Amino acid sequence: MSQQVTFHDHKPKESNLYSAILYGFSQSAKTIPPKFFYNERGSRLFDEICDQPEYYLPDAEKTVLNRCVNEIAEITGENRVIFEPGAGNLSKIRLLLDVLKPIAYVPMDISSDFLKSAAAGLAGDYPWLPIHAACVDFTHSLPLPEAVPDKPRLAFFPGSSLGNFHRAEAKEFLLMIRQALGREGMLLIGVDTKKSVSVLNAAYNDAAGITAKFNLNLLWRIRHELQAECEPDNFDHHAFYNRDEGRIEMHLVSQREQAVRINGHRFSFDPGETVQTECSYKYAPEEFLALATDAGLQPIKHWLAKDELFAVYLLGVSAWEV
Ligand SMILES: C[S@@+](CC[C@H](N)C(=O)[O-])C[C@H]1O[C@@H](n2cnc3c(N)ncnc32)[C@H](O)[C@@H]1O
Predict the structure, then answer these.
(1) Same domain, 251 and 266
(2) Do 66 and 141 fall within a single domain?
(3) Which of the ends of the chain has fewer CB neighbours closer than 10 A, N or C?
């Protein structure tokens, strides 16, 4: 890695697949937290999902960012420290860098090797940009490396990743962002909107079956990394919009009666029993703005994609906070 990029490992020990699975498979309604989708293979599969025609989110968000980046820069100014939790392949920050001209960029992700190679690729294309790549679990904390300059901050949180938190957790996460922003901080966040159920259901059930592979990758991780007796082929991907909760739910459904064995522990599955692997909450703009305000963030401006397919919001730390 070039000197332009520094790498910081802040991933807590508790972010551990084994303990999460023992806990999640012991519940009456089994769950696996979505952060475990993202090993190297999971991150690559997510990139493939973004190329599927049904998955409208990335194109809609990128179109808004391209359209509004100059307006965003007029409000934020230049020379901020930009940090991006769950930065993934770093494709969206590329739409902002030449206009926002940050003094430093801090991509943060749980998928460590994927983050390192994405940061190296970005450094090659933006040789003027100091990059402090940090492996973090943002459900625990958002530690910014000490070497980051003491300048006003901008948090960038695209991809509607906020939707992966349940509502109360989403508020906690926004409070954590506000804390990390400090005085004069701003948040630029992309959040998916409510829309027709058929569009939503298609987005999480692409015809090429990539989202299914991404979901089943969790079971392959359990099999390989925990040396578990687990047959991923005996489970199906199931994703649907739950209108009452305003969220997509993603599950793995057991095709038959079976057991998964991990290090002496046995977890039985009935036919049709599911493991919930992800929620993706959708927010009408007024719902999101109420949540953000509740977390002490002041709405500055927001922009909607065509047909209100997606929304990008710019918020500031509330006056009462500073
Ligand atoms: C839905 S993808 C979005 C990627 C990118 N922000 C985008 O908009 O295309 C979620 C990203 O967050 C990362 N991630 C998921 N859970 C995380 C966690 N608990 N801590 C840090 N990163 C996490 C994943 O590795 C992945 O890169």
Answers:
(1) yes
(2) yes
(3) C
Of 50, 312, 306, the residue nearest 158 (C-alpha): 312
**Residue 179 structural domain:** 54-196+283-321
- pTM beyond cutoff 0.90: yes
Instruction: Please work out whether the CB of residue 204 comes within 6 Å of at least one atom of ligand 1.
Output: no
- pLDDT tens readout for residues 218-256: 999 999 999 999 999 999 999 999 999 999 999 999 999
149, 276: one domain: no
3-state secondary structure of 122: helix
- Pocket lining: 39 vs ligand 1, CB cutoff 6 Å: no
The closest alpha carbon to 152, from 94, 102, 96, belongs to 102
Pairing of strands 265-269, 274-281: unpaired
Neighbours of 68 (CB within 10 A): 17
Q: Quote the CA–CA distance of 86 and 274 in Å, as a whole number.
A: 27
The number of the ligand 1 atom at minimal distance from the alpha carbon of 88 is 27
Report which protein residue has its CA nearest ligand 1's atom 10.
Answer: 86
Task: Tell me, yes or no, whether 32 and 77 share the same domain.
Answer: no
pLDDT tens-digit profile of 54-107?
Answer: 999 999 999 999 999 999 999 999 999 999 999 999 999 999 999 999 999 999
CATH assignment of the domain containing 132:
3.40.50.150
Q: How many domains is the chain built from?
A: 2
Residue type, 191: V
Quick check: 2 pLDDT over 50? yes
Is residue 296 a contact partner of residue 175, using CB atoms and an 8 Å limit? yes
* 66 and 174 both lie in a single domain: yes
